[in-house]
Amino acid sequence: MTKVLLITPPLTQLNTAYPATTALMAYLRQRGFEAIQRDLGIDLVNAVYTPDFLKRIFTQVKPTAKNRRMLEQQNAYVNTVQSVMRFLQGKDATLAVRIAGGDFLPTGKRFDNVADLEWAFGAAGVNDHARHLATLYVEDLADFIRENVDAHFDLVRYAERLSLSAPNFDKIEKALQTPPSLVDELMLQILDSYISAEKPDLIGFTVPFPGCLFSSLRCGQHIKKRYPHIKIVIGGGYVNTELRNLSDPRIFSYLDFITLDDGEFPLEKIILYLQKNEDINNLVRTFYINDNKVLVYSNNDEQNLHFSELPAPDFSGLPVEKYISLVALTNPMHKLWTDGAWNKLTVAHGCYWAKCAFCDTSLDYICRYEAPRVAHVVDKIESVMRQTGSSGFHFTDEALPPKLLKEIAEEIIRRNLIVNYWGNIRFEKNFTQELCSLLAKSGCIAVSGGLEVATDRLLSVINKGVNLRQAVCTAQAFADAGIMVHTYLMYGFPTQTLHEAVDALEVVRQMFDEGLVQSAFWHKLAVTAHSPIGKNPQAFGVKILNDKINPFANNDLPYTDGNKVNWEMVGAALSKATYNFMHGLCLDKPVQSWFSEKVPRPSVAPNLVISSMKD
Ligand code: SF4
Q1: What is the pLDDT of residues 107-116, one digit of tens each?
Q2: What angle do CA 396, 400, 406 make, to 5 degrees?
Q3: How many whole angstroms from 513 Cα to the centroid of ligand 1?
Q4: From the CB of 466, is ligand 1 less than 6 Å away?
């Protein structure tokens, strides 16, 4: 029987398991296949942050003006690293007082802007304060490794630059031909230990982000060389969005199969093919190389599994005790992404709205909405809690449907479960005060939703299905229920004017000021090939500058809307202002003063948010 090893490669996240291998393994085991999983990312971080590895890199690095400060403190780093990792893993809370005291940790450049943190954490917030300082310590070491040992190393991505908008395979291939770095060598040693212990026949890497591609291919290169009998497959979010039009076969020197969209069924078909139970023509949504070394896409795209038939994720084999909780920002909502062992669970498949102009609405993970039975969802919640011992859930749905969420909340309460959860929503009218109270009662602690461009004209162009007043009322309903709110914001949308960007910042300022949102993040619009704008650019006043199909990655489309706004300047102003708002600062400062160029005053009424709340 084909034995499958599923791997989360470096690096996705450090505080909890990424939810791909857990879902795949549960399905394969349910179908009677032999499958195991490992998180190579967290195992690598745990191997890097050790006295031995730090000693090794400190002795190899030549002193420069830039690294002298860290090198001078190398003994202190070597002596403290184990204690800091244990503290961040939640194994030694007693260290908090010493770390927060300020004299325990060596300090790199990330500590230069640490002022008096008492205001942020309060006298009682010693643990969070200490975790913030320990996070800076870990980040300083990551900077040191990147600048002196391995240019690809980062805490949440690995060699991301190589894979971001890679129209061809040249740069990635060239990097793969260089000798492995010290960190690469460590990663490959860990991989060797998995292979010698488990003896797999097929290894699957999930590649959700561009920052996981290089490490997967580096592993693939090693496996092909040392264990040529083992087959390799990759799939995941990056692959699904970027590699759908792959025509360059060179990547197949490092792997054997690439699957698209949900991986369960394609993986099952690959196993059946390897076991000689099925013909290669039965592969589903899979790229491979045939005997003539020609790239083939298997098609059979319409074959899929019903989401409601999929089992609860299986966490066995993951080192739950090794994940580390980081506190990069002092904002309590923002830190949810990096702090805490949140179990990741998808409640329904796809997005129940699936109409926003910038979103990948033509892809399966958005457009195929399928809601399971409520009892099945809550059964999964109970199963995961039993496995991990954690009652915290991050529902990873693109947008949680209010009706389904209401029924889940009622079932959680009916079963007397203690659950704490958060996830994405749309700011839509069905999230009433009554529903938000029910959600809070069932354990909802936070939501995140797109306010996007935060002006009514553009929300309508985007086809968001909400207007500002409604979004404000929904945010208020959550706030009144004691549920924290994060909002995703966007600038540079086609036809957006500078004045509209200033207006958007004023709306955001007012929402922070009224306590309706606790955190926010701005990003510049990217036109993707799978979005309504990418599919029909003329309808949005956009001209695609280069529509030729690349041999490797295809997703971001270079475009112009003829707009001459300096979006770099605007983006810097929006981010800086919002960073301050998130810390409760500068909320009375006129928003136009954040911009480095002269901009118009906002035309939004100074009490827009308050008057909307009274509607
Ligand atoms: S942006 Fe969110 S709400 Fe809009 S279609 Fe995409 S997933 Fe759905």
Answers
A1: 999 998 776 5
A2: 125
A3: 27
A4: no
Contact 206, 212 (CB under 8 A): yes
Radius of gyration of the chain (CA): 25
SS3 labels along 78-116? HHHHHHHHHHHCCCCHHHHHHHHHCCCCCCCHHHCCCCC
99-to-82, 94, 122, 129 alpha-carbon distances in Å: 13, 10, 15, 8
- Decide: pTM greater than 0.70: yes
If one residue of 351, 352, 425 were mutated to test the ligand 1 pocket, choosing by the most ligand atoms within 8 A of its CB, it would be: 351
Helix (H, G, I), strand (E, B) or coil at 521: strand
Cβ of 426 less than 6 Å from ligand 1: yes
Residue with tokens 């200033």: 502
Are the C-beta atoms of residues 577 and 602 closer than 8 Å to each other?
no
Whether 83 shows a pLDDT value over 80: the answer reads yes
| Atom nearest to 353 CA in ligand 1 | 8
| 401 C-beta closer than 6 A to ligand 1 | no
Q: How confident is the model at residue 123 (pLDDT cuts 50, 70, 90)?
A: low
Token pair listed for 325: 């909780």
Would you say the C-alpha torsion 195, 200, 202, 206 has a positive or negative sign? negative
Residue 12 contacts residue 44 (beta carbons within 8 Å): no
Cα→Cα distances 515→39, 446, 552, 609, Å: 38, 13, 46, 11
* pLDDT computed for residue 546 by the predictor: 85
Q: Which two tokens stand for residue 495?
A: 């036809």
Task: Report the SS3 class of residue 66.
Answer: coil
pLDDT surpassing 80 at residue 21:
yes
The mean per-residue pLDDT over the stretch 135-145 comes to: 96
Strand partners, 392: 420
Tell whether ligand 1 has an atom less than 6 A from the beta carbon of residue 361: yes
Q: How many CB atoms lie within 10 A of CB 371?
A: 18
**CA distance from start to end of the chain:** 64
pLDDT of residue 119: 59
- Tell me the percentage of the chain whose pLDDT exceeds 70: 97
Work out the pLDDT band at 159, boundaries 50, 70, 90. Answer: low
Mean pLDDT, rounded, for 368-388: 95
